[in-house]
Amino acid sequence: MSGAAARNAGALRAQETVLAQALVEQQFALHPELDSRYGPMGRRRCLEDARHHLSYLAQAVESQRSELFVDYIGWVKIVLAARRIAPEDFARQLSQLRALLRERLPQEAAAAADRVLEEGLRDLPGLPLDVASFLDDGAPLADVAREYVALLRQGDRQLASELVLATMRSGATLRDIYLEVFQRALREIGRLWQLNLISVAQEHYCTAATQMIMSQLYPHVLAGGRTRGTLVATCVAGNLHEVGIRMLADMFELHGWKTFFLGSNMPDEAVLAMVAERGAQVLAISATLAHQVGAVHELIARLRTDARFAQVRVIVGGRPFQVAAGLWKEVGADGHAVDADEAIALAERLVLSPA
Q1: 112, 83, 199, 188: which is closest to 146 by C-alpha?
Q2: Count helices and strands in the chain by DSSP H and E runs
Q3: What is the CATH number of domain 230-351?
Q4: Domain ranges of the chain
Q5: pLDDT digit of tens for each residue in the chain (355 aa)?
Q6: How far is CA 230 from the centre of its chain?
Q7: Which of 60, 98, 137, 316 meets the CB 3.0–4.6 Å disulfide criterion with 117?
Q8: What residues have CB less than 8 Å from 235, skipping those under 6 apart?
């Protein structure tokens, strides 16, 4: 992440609110029919969307990774289409944003943003309008995962809990439950919200219910002897999506590690204090959204400049690192994992069998 890229992203972030407001005003002035089509609530949502566009754009500029922005607009395209907002309206908004930035930003920053927007607009028409279900018929415990989602959608977390416990009594391991039921189910719940098939309240309920059921299973997580190492696992500041990193911490614990799960939206100082206090060999950091990548980079930079952490290894995870190959290196991590199995193998290679 170069100094010029950071300056360009900073110029964009400094005007984010003003730019978002200007974009929405311009959009509704040029297309008066939008007021009748979407109403006052639509205008407010357009403003919120514009801020998100600018936030993701700034991170793509800073990282010099346009694929992060393309991935984001692909997700937004599906969200908007499911809510009867045409892809053409979205493309028009991005084109207007492009023109606005050319007018309002310093030349270098405008050019950097323009390159990202150009790629996004080029790819947008070919991006899908749907997303496949995560409840694959051929996956292990597929029937259980499907029933689990159905029970949560009905609001019956008690039966969902009983289903999970019965599945374990039938021989499924905790790893099976975490990866084949909870992980698939929550991804499916996210897909259903994206497609406007459930409300945000329903999505939050399903997540909270799963966290409660995970707590019921915690006695199964405790391993006999923890001799393999110590892990601190956290969401980076700004990341409120904690279930995935909690699953990872539990899987490490099951595998014989001593773990300290810190939860969501943790300030850097608190994370580093815990790593020092517990003598952790590994710090696992989760970033769910692209605009959190900068915070990951900052946390790792602070760790690297502190002599206390010379032997600490950092593993990062989350969608941005899956979308942008090699991004984990650029934020200063020692490795990237797509799931708990991969993270455990990586941690043991880095700590227990270093090259």
Answers
A1: 188
A2: 17, 5
A3: 3.40.50.280
A4: 3-126, 142-221, 230-351
A5: 678 999 999 999 999 999 999 999 988 888 888 777 777 787 888 899 999 999 999 999 999 999 999 999 999 999 999 998 899 989 999 999 999 999 999 999 999 999 999 999 999 999 999 999 999 888 899 999 999 999 999 999 999 999 999 999 999 999 999 999 999 999 999 999 999 999 999 999 999 999 999 999 988 777 556 678 999 999 988 777 889 999 999 999 999 999 999 988 899 999 999 999 999 999 999 999 998 999 999 999 999 999 999 999 999 999 999 999 999 999 999 999 999 999 999 999 999 776 5
A6: 24
A7: 98
A8: 241, 242, 245, 262, 263, 264, 265, 266, 285, 286, 287, 288
Q: In what helix (H) or strand (E) does residue 28 lie, and over which residues does it extend?
A: helix 16-30
> Do the Cβ atoms of 263 and 235 come closer than 8 Å?
yes
pTM: 0.91
- Looking at residue 164, its amino acid is V
Fold of 3-126: Globin-like (1.10.490)
> Fold identical between 3-126 and 230-351?
no
Phi and psi angles of residue 2, each rounded to the nearest 5 degrees, phi first: -80, 165
Q: Rounded to an integer, what distance in angstroms lies between the CA atom of residue 336 and that of residue 217?
A: 27
First to last CA, the chain: 27
Torsion of CA 195, 201, 207, 211, to 10 degrees: 180
